[in-house]
C-alpha cells in the first residue's frame, strides 16, 4: 500500500466549519472574521478575558536534521491527545514562511494525521500576515530612501542605515546589493541587503506586542540608522509609525484554524528560531491562555534556540511561564548527531543512536537549567527499529527523564495519548522556572550565561565589529535588553559540523544589532545568514496545480 | 459645515452582509469564500454561465490632473444610477496599488457617496491579490538567480535577463540596482531593477487569462531572458509554471464587494494604464457579463491610455466589445489642459476651460476612431462655476456630443441618473466598434496607427535600442502581437508638458519589451518609469490608526 503524503491526508480531512471550531473554543461569533469557510481572524477585543489562565506546554526538540523532527506534528498530536482526554485545549503555532515552502524544508503545518488544516492555504499565503509584514518593512525602507532623496532633513548617513528590506523568499542574490544607481533622479546610491521576512524586526515587534497601542509604540521606537553625528534615527523621527501600524491592523488579529481532529488552533506570526526569536505571537498565546485550560505551543529548532528565546524573551515579556516542556527527539536526529551521514539515516544503526544520546542529554540539561523537568517525546518514524527505540527509552529511564513514544504522524491524537498523560503528570509536579539571565546583567554576562548554561560551551569571543557595536549600544544605554542569538540550528556551537555534545568551544559574536522596537539585541554568531538560499532542486519544481484547482507537491 | 472626507463617508456607510449582495447578483452561496463580513472571493466554476451577455459600458476620461478626475467615482455612481433605474448592474474595477495609496494620489475606490466599500480594506491589503502577484514575480526571480548560482545548466546570460523583481510600492531607489554581490556564496553579480507590481507581466497575465489552465500556459510562455547564444529562455524551461500557478490559485478568484448604495462590484487585478494595460481582470469582467445585464467598468487614465488598451488588447482577447463609452471630464482637468498651474486650479477661469476644450475634443475624436459615440460625463466638483460648466455643455451641444452633468460625489447614484439615461440612449444606437489596428500589421504600422489615430501625432521615432529590440522580436516571430504603450498620462504626446491638443509631435519609442505571457509588446516612450517615486510629503505621513483600530488619513 502506498503511503499517503501529508497533502493527500490533509485534503481528505473532513473539516468542520470554522464557526463550529470557534464555538468549541469559546470564541463569540461576533469576534470572527471569516477567510473562506475554514479560516478566521479573531477580534481579540471581543473575547472574554478570564482570570483563570491556562497551563502552557512548550514543545521543543533536540538538534534537528534539515527536514525537521516533527515538532509541529507532535505539538498538534499532543493537542489532539489532550482533547481526547477531555481537556479544553488550544494549539498555538507559527505561520509558515514561503522561503522553506518553496525551498527545501517544506511547510510547517505538522504531518500525517497530526496536521493543522487547510494545509495548503496555511502553507501558501494563509491570511496574508507575512505579506503585510513584508509590506510594512519595505514601506519603511521606501520612506527612508525617499527622505535621503528629498533633501535629507534628518541628516541620515546613508552608510549607517541599519534597516534592511525583506522578502518572504529564499533569495541569496539579494543578500548584498547596491541601490539608488542611475543618476540624481533615481535616489541616493548606497549599500543595502534583503533579509527574509521572518528575520525582520517588524516580525519580532508583531510577535511581542500586546495590543495595537503597544504595537504602534514599538514600531515608533525602531532604530533605522544613524546621522552623520552618529545619533540614532527612529521611525518616530520619520513620522510614519501611524501608517505602519495601520498597514498591520488586520494582520495583527490571530488566525483560527483546526487540527485534522478538530482541536482549535491559533496560527499567528512566524519568526525563525535560528535568525530570530522563533515563537508565535504573544497575542495569540495570550488569547489561547484566556480561552483554553491547556495551550500547547512550539518554539523553533532545538532547545538551544527557540526554547531559550521562548523563556528568556517571550515568557519574560509576556509575564507567564512554560508549565511543562516537551522535548521532541527522533531516531534519525540522534543518528545524525551520532555521526551518520544524511543519506544513511534510513539504515538501522543502534550504535549511532547511542553515540547521539549525548545530544539528548545536553538538551535535557538545558531545559533543567531553566528549572523545568522535560518530558521526552520520542517521535516514531516508519523504519525506526525496536532496538534503536529501546536505546533512547533505556537512557531516559536511567536518567530519570519522563519519556513517551509518540505515533502522532500515523495515529493522530491517539498516538499522543501516552505523551499527554506524561505531560499531565509533569504539570502536577513543582516547577521552578526562571530565565537564564537577568536583563540587568551586562551584555557579555548575558551572552556568556547562554553559551555556558544553554549551549554548554566555554565562553564568548567578540570580533572587533561586535566590540564596536557593543560600545555604541552602551553609549546609547541600550544594554539592559535581553539578547536574541542568531546561531546555526545544527549544533550547540556556532559551527554546524560540531555534532553530538561539543564542550570545548567558544561562540564568536561577529556583530550585535540593537532592535529597540522588538526590545532585544540580536547577536550574530558564526556564518549564520539572515537570508537563506535555495537548494539546487527547490521544492517549487515539484509544486503544481491541476485543472480543478487542486494543489500538488506541497510538503 | 465641515465636508466629510471619503474615509468618513465610507466608514459611516451601512454595509449589507456580502451574502446579501451575492444573492442580489445571482451568485450561489456555495460559490462564495468570505473574507470578513463584507468581502468575498468567488469560485467562478460555480456560477451559472448565461448565453445572454450583458452590455458593457466603459468609463474613460480626458487627460487627468495628478489627483485624478473621479473616473472610479463616476463608474460607481453610474452603476448605482442604473441600479436605481431598475437595471441589473454590476461594477467592475481594478484593485488599488499601495504605491499611490502611500504616495500622492490616494486610493482607488471612488469618492464621496460613490464609493466601493469597505474602503479602507480595499485600499490597504484587500484580499491579498497584489501580494500574491508580487510573490509569484519574485519567486520566479529567485529561481532564475538560483539557476545561475547552481551551475547555470540553461546557459542563461546574466547580462540578458529581462525579468525584473517587483514591489507594490513607490520606491525609486530600487529602479537601478546591482545584486549578487559579496563573493561566490552570495549568488552571481548582475544588474537588476524593481518595477512596481502593477507594471509586471504577472499582473498582465493574471488580468488576461480566461481560466486556470490558460493562466498556467501563459505563465509558462513568459520570456525571462536569453542565453549567451541569444536564445529565449521561458518559464517552461525553468519548470516552475506549476508552482507559480499554484501560488495564484486563490488570488485568481474575483473579489466581490458593494457600492455604498449596495450595487454589487467586482474588484480584481490592477495594472496601471500608463505603464501597463490598465484594465481589471478579464475573468472579473466575464463573470460580471454572465451575471448582470449591465456592466460598468473603467480603464485607467485618459482615453489615449486605458481605453485604447481596453479596446485593442482586452476586448480583442476577450472577444467582446464596449457597447458604450463614457468620457469623464472635469472643469479643473480642462483648466489644467488650458494652461492653468496646479495651485491655481481652484480659481474660476472660464477662458482657461475654453482653452482646454481642445483636449476634450481630441478624446471625443479618439473614441469615435474606435467606432463608438462617447457620452461625456461632466463630473461636478465643489467650486465649479456655472459659467465654466456652461462652456463644456455648450461645446458638446455644438459638436453633437451627448453630455450629462454628474453629481455622484455629492449625491451618489441619484447624481448619476441623468448620465445613466444618456448611456441607455447610447446603448440603443448602432455601434461600429473595431480595434484601431490589426495584429497582422507590422509593429511600426501598429504603433503608427495608435500615434496618429489615438494620440493625434505625426508619427513614430525608434531609438537605436528600440530598433535592436524590434529586430530581435522579428527574428523570434513575435511581431504579430498587439502593442501596449507605456506613456505619460498628462499629454497625448510623450512629453507631459505638452498640454491641450498637441499635433506636431513625434512619439519616441526607446525600447520594446516582448511580453509573451501577456501576449503583447510593451513600447516604452519618453521618460516613463515603470517604478514611481514618492513625493516629498508622502500620503503615509497623514495615515494613522486610533486605539480602537479605526483608520485615519486614508484618501
TrEMBL record, chains A, B:
GO biological process: tetrahydrofolate interconversion
Enzyme class, first EC level, given as a word: ligase
Chemical reaction(s) catalysed: (6S)-5,6,7,8-tetrahydrofolate + formate + ATP = (6R)-10-formyltetrahydrofolate + ADP + phosphate
Alphabetically ordered keywords of this record: ATP-binding, Ligase, Nucleotide-binding, One-carbon metabolism
Residue sites binding ATP per the record: 65-72
Name of one Pfam family that matches: FTHFS
Keyword match Nucleotide-binding: yes
UniProt-listed SUPFAM superfamilies: P-loop containing nucleoside triphosphate hydrolases
Name of the protein in question: Formate--tetrahydrofolate ligase
Keyword Zinc found: no
InterPro entries (UniProt xref): Formate_THF_ligase (IPR000559), Formate_THF_ligase_CS (IPR020628), P-loop_NTPase (IPR027417)
GO MF assignments: ATP binding; formate-tetrahydrofolate ligase activity
Gene: fhs
The family this protein is said to belong to: Belongs to the formate--tetrahydrofolate ligase family.
EC number: 6.3.4.3
NCBIfam families named in the record: PRK13505.1
Pathway: One-carbon metabolism; tetrahydrofolate interconversion
